[in-house]
Amino acid sequence: MKTNAGRFFEDYKIGEVIAHAVPRTLSGGERALYHALYPSRGALYSSDEFARACGLAQSPLDDLIVFHTVFGKTVPDISLNAVANLGYGEGRFLAPVYAGDTLSSSSEVIGLKQNSNGKSGVVYVRTTGRNQRGEAVLDYVRWVMVRKKDLGAPAPDTVIPELAKAVAPEDLVIPAGLDFSAYDFAQAGEPYRARDYAIGEVIDHVDGVTVEEAEHMLATRLWQNTAKVHFDATFRPDGQRLIYGGHIISLARALSFNGLANAQMIAAINAGAHANPCFSGMTVKAWSEVLDVAETKAPGVAAVRLRLVATNGAQPELRGADGKYHADVLLDLDYWALMPA
Amino acid sequence: MKTNAGRFFEDYKIGEVIAHAVPRTLSGGERALYHALYPSRGALYSSDEFARACGLAQSPLDDLIVFHTVFGKTVPDISLNAVANLGYGEGRFLAPVYAGDTLSSSSEVIGLKQNSNGKSGVVYVRTTGRNQRGEAVLDYVRWVMVRKKDLGAPAPDTVIPELAKAVAPEDLVIPAGLDFSAYDFAQAGEPYRARDYAIGEVIDHVDGVTVEEAEHMLATRLWQNTAKVHFDATFRPDGQRLIYGGHIISLARALSFNGLANAQMIAAINAGAHANPCFSGMTVKAWSEVLDVAETKAPGVAAVRLRLVATNGAQPELRGADGKYHADVLLDLDYWALMPA
Amino acid sequence: MKTNAGRFFEDYKIGEVIAHAVPRTLSGGERALYHALYPSRGALYSSDEFARACGLAQSPLDDLIVFHTVFGKTVPDISLNAVANLGYGEGRFLAPVYAGDTLSSSSEVIGLKQNSNGKSGVVYVRTTGRNQRGEAVLDYVRWVMVRKKDLGAPAPDTVIPELAKAVAPEDLVIPAGLDFSAYDFAQAGEPYRARDYAIGEVIDHVDGVTVEEAEHMLATRLWQNTAKVHFDATFRPDGQRLIYGGHIISLARALSFNGLANAQMIAAINAGAHANPCFSGMTVKAWSEVLDVAETKAPGVAAVRLRLVATNGAQPELRGADGKYHADVLLDLDYWALMPA
User: Where does the source fall among the domains of life (chains A, B, C) (predicted)?
Assistant: First the structure.
């Protein structure tokens, strides 16, 4: 068999480092496609001039382009036989990525726990994306439930990594040179600074996007994520193509411009859960909750910790009385963004 | 409320200049997407070599990329609460835009007229797009009907700008260096010069394109136009997403290659009306009528004034016996194009 | 009539060379779109770094971008009135194409045979694509069945070109500098060299993609192929848009990464047939058969001759008992790929 059947739970060993295949050079083409696929308007990612005025060499590629590209490379090795994508944590963006950069990624197995049914287990990996100079641009932890192929394979010793509930503000990496002290709020689209946001404040981002099959497939392919379930309508018994969770992250983040236009850069992903599956025809809306506000050492730059919730239609509640996510909650993401102080 | 609720009729004052947010750097990515979204084949916009042979530095971005980008920036300030996009006039393309340029736009309120029902009014703006050097690349007048929020707000003095019925040929701005005296008709695809077109001549552009939701949403997002009605299938009672009028302009213009392959550059938009809404599933066709032919001072360059009509299916008539647009007429656009003399 | 009605069978003369219109400059935008449209993962086309390590200046544009662009230009002159696209042969890729290059194409009529019904005939053309320096980058033979307009026009002398069943391995053109002697199999995604493939070996590429209208239209327009049948749902009596055959070639080739990740460059197209039409909603799968393995003079570079079959759903058989293609076989392509020896 020359084709890749993917790894099964018993194939992972603690401490193993997997170098994922197919490095990828990103260009202005990926940047343009990102703007066509998502209603993205952050000025720093839209205009070279705006980015220069903020101390960067040019407009970087959207942080989520970096996330999706690095993530996409892990799919053939990590999640081809995944039953569920359980969560993210300790994600940090470590350096901006520009058109012309080439990204590759690798993952270290940092946790394993066989499920009590003996048919599957949870695999924790820390994935690192690097540019062509070998500099780390992103790392994050992801855990997925993966099927066993050989049910008789012995259960590994259980190792569950201790993960920080959130990246500490002092651990956020601010891009070299970033300076918001002469930030142009008019060009950015909204007048609000970090200090204008109150912890606990909730922002309904108002707009909605009804998603189409062609769009999520274009996006998911662009990141070279080839999980069958996103592309093959004959794969699931219900004939539906499951939309890549990252598509929802990008949609919700782009929608959040309306009320959070100055939350320019994603500095960290503290936690994330794909609460319910998303399918074509759903109308994705989003709301955010301000979880924290912190200072950074960069001039004029603050960090705002946000919960970003994507929903199918309007759904202001995150969980029902039973404590479970409402059926129309699609995403619950906890992240740090950099904003004028 | 940190989100943008848009302006209402009573929020506009004559003479006010609104600087629209989010400058945008355009690249070869937007150019490629334009070719994927529209059946565009104009040689000047397809080939750097052809453009150089016509005296330009390289192939410029399609004029309508410039129009859509400049227009898109105005939406949050001008048409978020628009009931109808009523018309365009006095539009002139002032300088070519190349990959790497960054565009921004601003609008001056030049006319106001409250409707007799007291619930809405017409706002006239002159919008100017500028590149990163502050040079104007496009200006045009647009008027939209906008709702009042506070019905008790006093009606403003009525000001209706006097608009030229068409840009005078001597006011057309010809790109510096443009020279069609060695124009390669074989490469361009058709042998016809301006002198081969008779005033009154009508050209059926033959081809049709059945439009899809994913396509018009990709296009409209690419121009950072975020009007809900284009994206959210739950917004209109009929569950249909209204297609951005500019999508129809670009479709029709691209279809007009077949018969007008040498109408290379758009120099002016004299007038334009979105006669009827367009929805996914319609098959857009187009025909043109030659309205005028004029000389320019540039070597070998003539100007041809064209009416471009987009229809849902074939519809050779513009108006019915009642003088109204036929229900299957989508667009009636009057523009000047530059063509070999 | 200023519009192009296309040529009919009686309009072609043996030896005539047709220079096709509208040269096209390709950029990183087309490259990104190719990755969004097809699940393409070949490392040489994904990463500038990987391409440099293989002796090239940077990552070239996918060979099929070149094929589609060159082919697209021929449509208005060759296949606008085609009843059927009958086959391909003697195709050779002659030089890599990079972002920034401008392609044009021309075709020589090398064969004519009127059908016995007197209503149509077969036209054979040899098409050559050239870059901005006039260097040939691709040539191939295609034959199509074209309608006669004037049924009374005399039949031409029958000329049927003798075409090689396959390009001989010694006639393959290896890009200057290509060197696979330090090939990084881990980055490329699979460990298999040419010597690991046995003649007769069949590889099921496992994955499938359900195709959408928006996708094939975006792709087909990107190559400036404007045949009505791909875009206009009112053109065929059944209301279906026929998918451009090249879309299936690209889909199948991209799917073949899974099992043939190291079949990096297409060196030749020996033969090709679009066995059955493809429509939106079908789920395209693919399998390959190894037909031959050969040496080349380039360091570490072998050539592998492959049959690539695209199917609607899973269909391991090529032909039925009657010798005809199974109804769910979409494509039967015979090509040479360059692979580490």
Answer: Bacteria
Best mutation site among C77, C211, C223, C232 for testing chain B: the one with the most B CBs within 10 Å? Answer: C232
The CATH class for the domain spanning C1-26+61-163 reads alpha beta
pLDDT for position C84: 85
> H/E element holding B106?
strand B102-114
Q: Which residues of C fall within a CB distance of 8 Å from A19?
A: 186-187
Question: Could you give the CA distance from residue C245 to residue C223 in angstroms, rounded to a whole number?
Answer: 12
Express each pLDDT in B319-338 by its tens digit. Answer: 999 999 999 999 999 999 99
Token reading at C210: 């359900």
Which residue is closest to C60 within chain A, CA to CA?
A: A25
Type of residue at C57? A
Pull the structure tokens for residue B313: 């299916």
Mutual angle of helices A213-222 and B213-222, in 10-degree steps: 60
In this complex, the chains that touch B, judged by 3 or more CB pairs closer than 8 A, are A, C
The yes/no answer to whether this complex scores an ipTM above 0.90 is yes
Q: What is the CATH number of domain C172-341?
A: 3.10.129.10
The CATH code of the domain at A165-341 is: 3.10.129.10
3-state secondary structure at position C196 = helix
Query: In terms of CATH architecture, what is B166-341?
Result: Roll (3.10)
CB-hemisphere CA count at 13 Å for B44? 28
A92-124: string of b/e by CB count within 10 Å (b at 16+)? bbbbbbbbebbbbbbbbbbbbbbbeeeebbbbb
Best B1, B3, B215 residue to mutate vs chain A (most A CBs within 10 Å): B3
Number of helices (H) and strands (E), helices first, in chain C? 8, 12
A to B CB pairs, distance under 8 Å: 136
- C-contacting residues in A 138-177 (Cβ below 8 Å): none
Rounded Cα distance, C128 and C18, in Å = 10
Q: What is the rounded average pLDDT of the residues A67-78? A: 97
pLDDT digit string, tens, across residues A83-126: 888 999 999 999 999 999 999 999 999 999 999 999 999 999 99
Q: How many Å separate Cα C75 from the centre of its chain?
A: 14
For A61, counting Cβ atoms within 10 Å of its Cβ (0-12 exposed, 13-18 middle, 19+ buried), the class is: buried
A50 CB neighbours in chain B (<8 A) are: 23
Q: Which residues on A lie below 8 Å from C40 (Cβ)?
A: 221, 224
Q: Which of C190, C312, C318 is nearest to C257 (CA)?
A: C190
From residue B272, how far is each of B109, B247, B269, C30 by CA, in Å?
19, 13, 7, 32
Taking the Cβ of residue C59 and every Cβ of chain A, the question of whether any pair is shorter than 8 Å is answered with: yes
Is C4–B258 a contact, with Cβ atoms under 8 angstroms apart? Answer: yes
The CA R_g of chain C, rounded to the nearest whole Å, is: 20
pLDDT, one tens digit per residue, over B270-297 is: 999 999 999 999 999 999 999 999 999 9
Q: What are the extents of the domains in chain A?
A: 1-26+61-163, 165-341
C30: nearest CA partner in chain A: A29
Partner residue opposite B222 with nearest CB, options A27, A36, A59: A36
Q: Output DSSP code: residue C20.
A: P
Please report the residues numbered 207 through 236 in chain B whose beta carbons come closer than 8 angstroms to any beta carbon of chain C.
Answer: 207-210, 212-215, 218
Instruction: Decide if C279 touches B, using CB distance below 8 A.
Output: no
Q: What is the mean pLDDT of the segment spanning C235-243? A: 95
Q: Please list, in sequence order, all residues whose beta carbon lies within 8 angstroms of the beta carbon of residue C323, skipping any fewer than 6 positions away.
A: none
- CB nearest to B48's CB, from C21, C25, C217: C25
Looking at the DSSP bridge assignments, the partners of residue A107 are: A18, A127
Is pLDDT of C146 > 90? yes
Q: Do domains A1-26+61-163 and A165-341 have the same CATH topology?
A: yes
